[in-house]
Amino acid sequence: METRITRHDSSETPRVMVVDGSKVVRRMLQQLLQAQVPGVEVVACECGAEAERRLEAGAVDLVTTALRLPDMDGLELARRFRERAAQAYVPIVVVSGDVQERLQSRTLTDDVTDYFDKSLGFGALAEFIRGYVRPDRQASGEVLYVEDSRVVALATRRMLEKHGLTVQHVVSVEDALALLETAQAQGRIGADLVLTDVSLKGELTGGDLLERIRHRYGYGKGQLPVLVMTGDDNPKNQAALLKAGANDLVQKPIEEQLLITKLLFQLRVSQRLRAAVPA
């Protein structure tokens, strides 16, 4: 059976993976999540190896893991998850009793989206998780939108603005790169999220834009999310886009509720991550 590589479909219930060596903790967090997030599916795992096996059976929307597991470090588990090409970028939250010390000693990376202080209690953790998997339908943020069809761009721009987003539309990768170049020279990123088609007029494609964002500018998936719109339903090609640095994919023709759900999800993850990193 082929594993799905993206989630966040509006018709699906959120799927949260809980990794903890304590059966009591797993059961308690499952009950709290089911109360806080109606319809949630909790994938409970005792150790890192089980979590890796369960991930093979289907994508998840969020992973929360204890820092210390029976068979590995929670940070090692996060690293292994990120190495999977066939998994869209999802938040990974590490639960620890010494969050402040760890925040001071390491920079949050794309491996770990956030740390959560265990002393705040599991009820607070469940509420924290809900903020990720059930974000508000209204949001603030600037989207750099790359689309060469002005008709499609107008409709999509109105769709995004209806949900409170600011949209900066360009018709080519070259124009998008010019904006990002100027912003970086000014000490800014230039957008909160990039939404791009794969096939565009001009010499450069959406894949080229993705490569430059991740490598030339050095923006990770948590720093500048990129959603790629594609009409290619070949799993290998989709996996290649994710491996190249796409946070998630949006199948064409675009369905509004699905696009908004995916976009707001990635925007919320990025905003949380940026807020957690000291300036």
From TrEMBL:
Keywords of the record: Kinase, Phosphoprotein, Transferase
One Pfam entry name: Response_reg
Domain of life: Bacteria
Biological source species: Mizugakiibacter sediminis
Residues in Response regulatory domain copies: 15-133, 142-267
One of the record's GO molecular function terms: kinase activity
PANTHER family named in the record: STRESS RESPONSE REGULATOR PROTEIN 1, TWO-COMPONENT RESPONSE REGULATOR
List of residues that carry 4-aspartylphosphate: 197
Protein name: Histidine kinase
InterPro entries per UniProt: Bact_response_regulator, CheY-like_superfamily, Sig_transdc_resp-reg_receiver
GO annotation terms (biological process): phosphorelay signal transduction system
